[in-house]
């Protein structure tokens, strides 16, 4: 018998986890898609707030895949729920209903969330079965959502955010090539969200009184070192060059009386 849809997704997940390459498959992109891919990669390489990343990606991904609807949430492990919604072409009241009720009666998203590759709604539940559910008839149908694909940003066991892309019934389901496009973008999406999350953390990191010897920018750099960011990541987060990052670090080393990053962190911790 042929492989099931869920089996195909599982195989792609295993390939991702074991870092094996997909067999070479020719993928044809239009000129517009090529341009959009460049814009997406540029956006993901730039320092943006986490919410901005999910908003900008929504517009670009919809254009790339010819989709009509987009939503994005962030998983809250404490409450075991999705929050911080972003939407394009969806009714905000309907999304509020999702937050308060429908996410707890959602037959597809908990299954889709398990995967670290793009996964279609029909990969976890056939469309004819989905159409029989309260979730489809009272939530998805209100905005005209019919064919869906989700991509989750997993980083060190944490779900940083997701992209939920939908088409209406008049269009076709997402193709294997479109799934591979999303898989190609997933590592950069994860990196961008992880970087944005780390950038917010330094504000809550307290340095000891030795830090008073440092300039404000040197303190900012030291805080980012404390949470494990590389020179390149610090440069993106602070919108400065890597050369300037190294200058700030060398000045901090000298002023605090250390010779490396580990010693700097040790010296500046409260």
Automatic annotation (TrEMBL):
Which residues are in coiled coils? none
For this UniProt record, the keywords arranged alphabetically read as follows:
DNA-binding, Transcription, Transcription regulation
Single GO molecular function? DNA binding
> HTH luxR-type domain: which residues?
207-270
A biological process (GO) of this protein is: regulation of DNA-templated transcription
Membrane-crossing segments per the record: none
- Which Pfam families does its entry note? GerE (PF00196)
Q: What is the protein name for this chain?
A: HTH luxR-type domain-containing protein
Q: Which organism does this sequence originate in?
A: Limnohabitans planktonicus II-D5
Source domain of life: Bacteria
